[in-house]
Design goal:
heterodimer; A: mainly alpha; 2 domains; 11 helices; 2 strands; B: alpha/beta; Rossmann fold; six-stranded mixed beta sheet; four-stranded antiparallel beta sheet; 23% strand
Chain lengths: 284, 275
């Protein structure tokens, strides 16, 4: 039924990740995305995958929910993979007529694809563990400083809140209009794509009118409840930066430092590792 | 002095410069604090317009409206007026703002700038007052019409108003939802809140302690229910019906039964007949 739909893809839970301040989660997600583009080699990817894996484990969100987000961009991932594989020059591996697959190409394609996958999973982790309402609150708070240069942070957040509230209402409305038009013989299922698109007009026009009517009613109800913009407004749930948020922030810094300095660290460790390996070989 | 004073109110809907429709034409009503007043009228009788004038959603073109001593035309006192005279609208879907019940109830207090801890307390109190506390984490679209309307009432109650204007709150509800909302309304009245109920259901109006009948922008009848319903013919002449109990009493009287004039509710009638 249309009224059972869930908005966004929030996965209810009480984990440590769920409880983090939404502002922090948004920033961490951004940091993670930037970090993915700073990764240069194999070890860097191991660090990124491990970090993401740990967060997913802590969040207790089943992996299949993460992978669901990937389905939508599956084609893009394949496209990126194939493009990188064939278009990168270097040492040839296999040649099939005019196209050649190079070692460099395969390497790059693999990492580009992995980067995209991590990108999607990382950002869907944010929406999976944060209620839409909290997400909106977090965005309002983060955009707050930009009010000085004229960014309507509160208004944007209010618009999102209202949109979230009215998606189900408008869906129900669509359902109702559709049934009303079908009862009068409208046909939405058969015919060519163009024909079907054209047949949608008798739904869209009443829906539009109805949306405006709802907006007018809502505006009046909001005014009656003393709404006068963001100025002087308080919140039922104030966002509070807690100890666990600080811990998460520090861990994020550590992660970012690891990603940036990973090559230097590896270079520093290499002689030790090499000697360790030769010692081991000698002992054997 | 009443909590709501309407003095010679005139209100016109302006279509353009010249053309305007006079929705309210010289209405004077004084509503006492703690009372339960029902305003009845046909569509277009000006009853909804009157309600919006009480909440300063519409401002008078002539005359004045005072809420708890504040003139609705006074910009300075606008928020005082709206906080004191809350309003519940007809459509339960179109007056809820937030995607979660408790956030919606908090909307009014948030607008008033109440500190966060007190909002929590107010939200809890208001939801308990309408028996919706257990639904506080639910999304409005999962609730029934009557439940949504009760959440809307909680949203107004959380602002701690002295008076609540209900603008046809049951018009879009099923009988079950209707009785739920009526129950809450009576309870709020018992708690000392002044209730103004705009309706076209005569049965609901019979619960009030004063009935005002509007017609073509004017007050046609005004008095306690028993007194108003005694003039059943006059009510019918205004294209309105009378409560079933009143109708029944009238017919029984025509057949020679002596039914007391005070009977206007079905329960009262049943009790009288079963004596």
């Amino acid at each position: 039924m249309i009224r059972d739909i869930t908005i966004g893809q929030y996965y209810p839970g009480e984990s440590w990740v769920h409880k983090l301040d939404p502002r922090l989660k948004i920033i961490v997600t951004l940091v993670f995305i930037v970090a993915l583009f700073l990764v240069k080699d194999f070890v860097g990817y191991i660090v990124a995958v491990a970090a993401l894996g740990i967060v997913i484990g802590v969040s207790k969100v089943p992996l299949r929910f993460m992978l669901r987000g990937l389905k939508a961009i599956f084609i893009i991932i394949i496209f990126t993979f194939v493009l990188n594989m064939f278009m990168t020059g270097g040492t040839e591996m296999i040649r099939l007529g005019p196209i050649a697959i190079t070692y460099e190409g395969l390497y790059r394609a693999f990492f580009m694809g992995l980067r995209l996958v991590l990108l999607i999973i990382g950002s869907s982790l944010l929406t999976l563990t944060t209620k839409p309402v909290k997400l909106t609150d977090g965005m309002e708070s983060l955009l707050g400083p930009f009010k000085a240069i004229g960014l309507p942070a509160h208004e944007l957040a209010m618009m999102m809140t209202i949109a979230l509230r009215f998606i189900p209402t408008l869906l129900e409305e669509t359902d109702k209009i559709m049934k009303a038009q079908m009862a009068r013989g409208a046909d939405f299922e058969s015919g060519s794509v163009f024909r079907r698109a054209k047949n949608m007009i008798p739904i869209l026009v009443p829906l539009f009118v109805s949306a405006f009517r709802i907006a007018q009613d809502l505006a009046m109800a909001m005014e009656a409840r003393c709404y006068r913009g963001g100025e002087g407004r308080t919140k039922l749930h104030e966002l509070k930066f807690k100890k666990r948020d600080l811990a998460a922030a520090l861990l994020t810094c550590l992660f970012l430092a690891l990603i940036i300095q990973e090559q230097n660290i590896m270079a520093a460790l290499m002689p030790t590792l090499a000697s360790l390996a030769s010692n081991l070989a000698g002992a054997l | 002095m009443g909590i709501i004073e309407i003095e010679d109110l005139v209100f016109e809907y302006k279509k353009d410069e010249e053309d305007s429709v006079r929705a309210i034409d010289g209405v004077s009503i004084d509503i006492e604090a703690g009372s339960f007043t029902a305003i009845i009228g046909r569509n277009g009788s000006g009853k909804s317009t009157l309600a919006k004038n009480i909440n300063a959603l519409l401002l008078p073109d002539g005359g004045a409206v005072y809420v708890d001593g504040f003139d609705t035309r006074d910009e300075e006192g606008l928020w005082e007026v709206r906080q004191r005279a809350g309003m519940v609208f007809q459509n339960p879907d179109n007056q809820l703002v937030a995607a979660i019940v408790e956030d919606d109830v908090a909307f009014g207090p948030e607008n008033l700038g109440i500190p966060s801890e007190s909002i929590d307390e107010r939200v809890r109190g208001a939801l308990m007052a309408v028996d919706m506390y257990e639904y506080r984490k639910k999304a409005p679209h999962m609730l029934s019409g009557g439940q949504k309307q009760r959440v809307a009432i909680a949203g107004v109650v959380a602002m701690r108003p002295k008076c609540i204007v209900f603008d046809e709150p049951t018009a879009m509800l099923d009988p079950h939802g209707r009785s739920e909302v009526m129950e809450i309304m009576k309870r709020l009245h018992a708690d000392g809140i002044t209730v103004v109920l705009i309706t076209h259901f005569m049965e609901e109006a019979a619960d009030a302690d004063r009935i005002i009948i509007m017609n073509e922008g004017r007050v046609e009848m005004d008095g306690p229910p028993a007194e108003v319903f005694r003039q059943a013919d006059r009510i019918r002449a205004l294209d309105l019906s009378v409560p079933i109990a009143v109708e029944l009493a009238e017919r029984l009287r025509r057949r020679g039964r002596d039914i007391p004039a005070g009977i206007i509710k079905m329960e009262e009638m049943v009790e009288y007949l079963c004596q």
